[in-house]
Amino acid sequence: MLIRVAFFIVLAIEIYFSTTQQNSLVKITKPLLMPILMWMAFQLNIKEKNLYIALFFSLLGDIFLMFGGELYFMLGLGSFLLAHIFYILLFKSQFKFSLLKALPFAAATLSYFMFIKGGIDPNLLIPVSVYCLVITLMGIFAAGRKTNNSSYNLVLFGSILFIISDSLIAFNKFYAPLPASSFWVMSTYGLAQFLIVLGWSKK
Q1: Contacts of 148 (CB under 8 A, 6+ apart)
Q2: N or C terminus of the chain with fewer C-beta within 10 Å?
Q3: Domains contained in the chain, number
Q4: What distance in Å separates the CA atoms of residue 78 and residue 48, rounded to the nearest whole number?
Q5: Residues 171-189 pLDDT 10s
Q6: What residues have CB less than 8 Å from 137, skipping those under 6 apart?
């Protein structure tokens, strides 16, 4: 229980530092989030390596996105792409394809991509397209899991929040400045990762 409280305290502090643009302090708090979740996963006796690898690449993504510029954005994008791939591999063990569950994710991603496409740098169009495909698959694999209701709902909700967080980043970068973007991005992202870890422990 204490590790869960610690995570949300650090997340709240990180969000405060981000929204008040105290970037030097963000560089201290943000990289703490994923290691805390790794420790929480360990305490919950989660043994699947893919979950820890997904959290590790999320940590790298967090670190890269703390810095400005296209290079760090691409490194962050690549890191989170790998994080989603390892979540897909994690969910794969319980996955059974359902067209009914897959269609909402595919339709939502395609619609949103077309909505922001005009603002995407042509040099980033292919990487962003690939990323959209992978996060869509992550959502589909989360929705297609065969497990108990508690684990299913927590992981699915966490995966949807992860997609929402990524969508907010894309909106802010490619479409228009998002008011209080740090608050919305980090709150959805932090809760997403927490719910995936907690949900997987209940499988």
Answers
A1: 202, 203
A2: N
A3: 1
A4: 22
A5: 999 999 999 999 999 999 9
A6: 84, 88
- CB count within 10 Å of CB 67 equals 13
Residue numbers of the domain that contains 176: 2-201
Look at the block and give the residue holding tokens 């996105």.
65
How far apart, in whole angstroms, are the C-alpha atoms of residue 75 and residue 108?
25
How many angstroms from the chain centroid is the CA of residue 103?
Answer: 20
pLDDT score for 70: 86
Reduced to 3 states (helix: H, G, I; strand: E, B; else coil), residue 117 is helix
Question: What are the pLDDT digits (tens) for 24-71?
Answer: 999 999 999 999 999 999 999 999 999 999 999 999 999 999 988 889
pTM of this structure:
0.96
